[in-house]
From TrEMBL:
Keyword presence, Transferase: yes
Keyword annotations of the record: Cobalamin biosynthesis, Methyltransferase, S-adenosyl-L-methionine, Transferase
UniProt name for this protein: Cobalt-precorrin-5B C(1)-methyltransferase
SUPFAM superfamilies: CbiD-like
InterPro entries: CbiD, CbiD_sf
């Protein structure tokens, strides 16, 4: 069963996608070994943390070709997570004698491919480790195993993420370093984020708001001291206000352009469940800067803002233009203006906010004049 916090008002944790994929594989293997048994749940050793989870099994069956199929359903807890209730299939069959590994793990339909790594399946280290740890003890000594994970809704769900911007195409990733899905995006978790800002504000008058893990890592490579960083999740608006009320004088916003662009449109909770409008914002700023109508329409129709940025770069290369700078510089300046106005309206405080945005390779695309000033001051203080 899932972690239970019924005795507490705190948001409920759940499990990450690799745990449910592993549970499906365990159930399918058990069906392969003992076809007559009935399975309602399986036990999964999470490895990280060191505990066991009981995962409900929705369906399990033998298939005509001798393999077995099992289905579980994702429950990420009280997270705003698009994988909630999505089915996770595992098809398990005995491996061949020539198979180099005892357990061969493959990605089927809906599992993303890493386009920069030869289209290998986006099944990361933790998913592989949890599979090995749980399936190996069940495997008869003279057998090897082939496991194929299928996410029937993965391809369509991936269109609502930024996966493609970071090289994952055609599906979702089996990503994570832990089996527990902490409810970082649940409303009840906001207080923890605020508390973190309060603690940082007691030490520094200038902070770096990092949107996601990519922002945290990029801050380090820029030379920013680790203790200045604040991981914001999607709660940018409330945390900007909290920082202002705590007396912070300057905030550098550092994040992927596909997230921070929302602030240029006045969207201060960046989760896609709340609002999107990324292509619309990029297109509007591009039109205001004089980009030809046909190219504006292409930005608007782009699958992602990363694709829109690629189109602008191609225009620059083909026409010796500077559309990226001409569009993205006003964009980051607009992020500053909207953030400063938001703080003034909601906290009655005047502080400096500067935005720097990067692309899928974590290369800075543009940074505002305020961001440049803040970054210089941050580097001097290190």
């Amino acid at each position: 069963m899932l972690p239970d916090t019924n005795l507490s008002p705190d948001p409920r944790a759940g499990y990450t996608l690799p745990v449910f994929a592993c549970a499906s594989a365990i159930a399918a293997l058990q069906k392969l070994i003992a076809p007559d048994q009935t399975l309602d749940t399986v036990e999964v050793n999470l490895i990280n943390p060191e505990r066991t989870a009981s995962i409900p099994v929705e369906q399990v069956a033998q298939l005509p070709d001798g393999s077995a199929l099992a289905i579980t359903r994702s429950d990420p807890g009280d997270n705003l997570d698009l994988t909630r209730h999505t089915p996770i299939w595992a098809v398990v069959s005995w491996g061949s004698a020539r198979q180099p590994d005892r357990i061969r793990l493959e990605g089927g339909e809906g599992v993303g491919k890493l386009e920069n790594q030869g289209d290998r399946p986006a099944i990361y280290a933790y998913a592989q480790q949890v599979m090995q740890a749980n399936l190996e003890p069940l495997l008869p000594p003279d057998k090897s195993l082939q496991v194929t994970i299928i996410l029937p809704e993965g391809r369509s769900l991936a269109l609502r993420t930024s996966n493609a911007a970071f090289g994952v195409v055609d599906g979702l990733s089996l990503l994570g370093t832990s089996g527990i899905s902490e409810p970082l995006s649940a409303p009840g978790q906001l207080e923890a984020f605020r508390q973190n800002v309060r603690e940082q504000a007691q030490q520094f008058d200038t902070l770096v708001f990092c949107v996601g893990e990519n922002g945290l890592q990029r801050a380090l490579t820029l030379g920013i001291a680790a203790e200045r960083r604040v991981k914001t999740g999607n709660w940018l608006g409330p945390l900007l206000i909290e920082a202002a009320l705590c007396g912070v004088q300057g905030i550098l916003l550092l994040g992927y352009h596909g997230k921070l662009i929302k602030l240029a449109g006045g969207i201060f909770h960046t989760h896609h469940y709340v609002a999107d409008g990324r292509q619309e914002i990029l297109s509007a700023i591009a039109a205001a800067q004089g980009l030809p109508t046909a190219d504006v329409q292409q930005l608007l129709a782009a699958a992602t803002v990363e694709a829109g940025l690629t189109h602008l770069r191609q225009l620059d290369q083909a026409q010796s233009q500077d559309w990226v700078q001409r569009i993205y510089q006003p964009l980051v300046e607009r992020i500053d203006q909207r953030a400063i106005a938001y703080i003034q309206a909601n906290a009655d405080r005047s502080i400096t906010v500067g935005a720097a945005v990067f692309d899928r390779q974590r290369e800075i695309v543009a940074q505002s004049d305020r961001a440049t000033t803040l970054l210089q001051a941050l580097l001097v203080s290190c």
